[in-house]
Amino acid sequence: MGGSYGSTLRYKSVQRLKPIGKHTLLGAGGEISDFQEIVRYLDELILYDNMWDDGNSLGPKEVHNYLNRLMYNRRNKFNPLWNTLVLGGVKNGQKYLGTVNMIGVHYEENHVATGFGNHLARPIFRDEWHEDMTFEEGVKLLEKCMLVLLYRDRSAVNKLQIAKITEEGATISEPYAIKTHWELEAFKNPATGAVGSW
Amino acid sequence: MANTAIELPPKGGFSFDLCRRNEMLAKKGVQSPSFRKTGTTIVGLVFQDGVILGADTRATEGPIVCDKNCEKIHYMAPNIYCCGAGTAADTEAVTDMVSSQLELHRYATGRESRVVTALTLLKSHLYSYQGHVSAALVLGGVDCTGPHLHTIYPHGSTDTLPFATMGSGSLAAMAMFESRYREGMTREEGIKLVCQAICSGIFNDLGSGSNVDVCVITKGQKEYLRNYELPNPRTYVSSKGYSFAKGHTEVLSTKITPLKEHVKIIEGDAMEE
User: Fold this and answer.
1) pLDDT of B158-207, one tens digit each?
2) Residue B40 appears among annotated catalytic residues
3) Which of A123, A184, A193 sits opposite B146 (nearest CB)?
4) Structure pTM?
């Protein structure tokens, strides 16, 4: 939930997960103002779709394609929207999770991450993700990764939200903190062996 | 005529005389040769009886893998081992040098080497070279004061930690450690976690690969398990390997040239052995 300004943790309550239409959830890393622009574009897209009033609504695949075109075109004009977007949704029983990047790289995967998550969380996902996890197992896995990121990413804050999207709709939880463990014996007096060093 | 310049004796350390020339050449488009780096994932952790070190075995030269099965866990003393990441020449030279210094010290003192001795020798050497000796090390060992694990950075700073990772695959390995490390693990649990961390580096980092080396150091005993795990075996299509029997390849034409006619024997002595 943190919004940094260079090395300052300027905003501590930035919501970076937004529901789009009935079937999709969008999350972003990178430049927050560009994310707000993207949300504005998508609001317009959903509005026009609703105005058709034809009973059909844009699903995650369609939104993903739109975002991909948007990001790639901006990149071609040398004016990118500096974000890594994570898009998830369910439509007609079909689950979808994909990502679009500021240069237009896009793909569908069972687990995606932005920023440092690519280096720290992806290895854990690749090892521990499996088909047909329950919601609780999924949240537990995500919290495990967020804990590692909290320990090892300097721009992380201990305030996170879990968003869930199912056929019924999207729910975004209230912000909460995860428990960190600092009671290791070795941390109590680390340099006893090497006096004068760290 | 008199000599204008006095020959100064060479001072120790790096000579930066050619830097200007190299910059000029680089501007003109000459590519400098790439050096062999150990892309790498190296890890260490402290368990209940001592220290376990782990490393992958891939050495890279730019984008190419130049050694598929190199040894990154270097011997320092009978009770101290050191994993090295960074430029391969630097890690080997620095660990060899400190290893011989430790041996001389052992003869002088008559005692088992301590990990802090190796730590201080390494860090003061690396600091004096201001980071130009590109060696990032994970030093572990057990001495009379107990088990110790340290990381040493190329500029000479050190950390004393219960678990540590270095190298390009350090984030992938650290993700495994941070989520699974507990204090007071047994030997089996420790080795398993070290393997998981190295495998995480091998499969998620492009600079690391091939096999897993493990080194377990306990009081009075060390076990160097070279190629403890081989998660990337060569899988041949045929279990017997390849065989090219006669008749597999179509022969288009045959020309036999007997060499005896062309070799003339001139008077002379036979070649000496």
Assistant:
1) 999 899 999 999 999 999 999 999 888 999 999 999 999 999 999 999 88
2) yes
3) A193
4) 0.81
